[in-house]
Specification:
single chain; alpha+beta; Ribulose 1,5 Bisphosphate Carboxylase/Oxygenase; Rossmann fold; two-stranded antiparallel sheet; 9 helices; 32% helix
Length: 273
């Protein structure tokens, strides 16, 4: 005869023990499912993953490291430089220092604006606080608006309106302009006896300042001077002579570096001596 398998059933077994075994089996099944999924952590190499051993699967938080790569590449992209500028810059030897005459000719050739641009002179000087007025031998090509201070000027200044390039005043008018010194001073517009903008006869002085006179003043807290000395459609000789006039007015020994450029063009280094 074959063997007979006999199963003994204990009817008195605790039903709560059977429920505990079912819950344990269910938890084990869920844990296995989580282990199969894995969790992505920013910075891992391809094929690597982190497996959760216990607890709930964490939600991946967005960090700086997990930002899209496109944004990072965009931030590192160099600023676009136009073809016209590159072509103009190729005409300038960065290792060479040009004479005023050579620079005046070159600044016209390297200007790529569709209109006659301004010719700008940028100077690095030995100290701050330079503030002088000089008369150029030739026009800068820019018309100046000259105003003689009066009650209407004071009302405009109260409203923060400045629509003039030169401000002339009589000594009697100066006390009314003092409250606006912080507004006019940084712009080089505060009347000053050294510049001749404080005078007993402003009407007569207006003729002088309406010509080729320019103000040369260092920037606030920096030994730098920026001024316009002409237009690119002027004869090169006029631009060259204006350059020399500015350097002489400041003093060649005080000028550490000089660069000329068109309003749309590369910088050209100038020999100061």
């Amino acid at each position: 005869m074959g063997k007979t398998k006999i199963t003994v059933i204990n009817e008195g077994a605790d039903s709560s023990e059977q429920e505990t075994k079912k819950e344990s089996a269910s938890r084990q099944k869920k844990r296995s499912q989580r282990e199969e999924k894995g969790v992505h952590i920013p910075g891992l190499k391809g094929g690597e993953r982190v497996v959760v051993v216990g607890g709930e699967t964490p939600v991946e938080e967005e960090t700086e490291a997990s930002q899209p790569e496109k944004e990072e590449k965009k931030a590192k992209e160099p600023k676009h430089v136009g073809k016209k500028y590159l072509a103009a810059r190729a005409k300038v030897d960065p290792a060479k220092t040009y004479t005023p005459s050579e620079a005046a000719t070159l600044v016209q050739k390297t200007s790529f604006s569709a209109f006659p641009g301004s010719v700008e002179l940028h100077l690095v000087v030995g100290k701050e606080g330079i503030n002088t007025q000089t008369e150029l031998p030739h026009s800068t090509g820019t018309k100046k608006k000259i105003e003689i201070a009066d009650e209407k000027t004071v009302e405009k200044l109260k409203k923060g309106k400045i629509d003039f390039d030169v401000l002339l005043a009589s000594p009697a008018m100066m006390p009314k302009l003092v409250p606006f010194a912080k507004t006019l001073g940084p712009r080089g517009l505060m009347p000053n006896p050294k510049q001749g903008t404080i005078t007993e006869n402003p009407e007569q002085a207006k003729k002088k300042f309406g010509g080729n006179s320019i103000s040369l003043k260092t920037q606030k807290d920096a030994p730098l001077i920026h001024t316009t000395i002409g237009k690119t459609n002027q004869p090169g000789r006029e631009i060259s002579e204006n350059i020399k006039a500015v350097i002489e007015a400041i003093g060649s020994k005080k000028v550490k570096k000089a660069v000329i450029s068109a309003s749309m063009g590369p910088g050209i280094k100038i020999a100061v001596a």
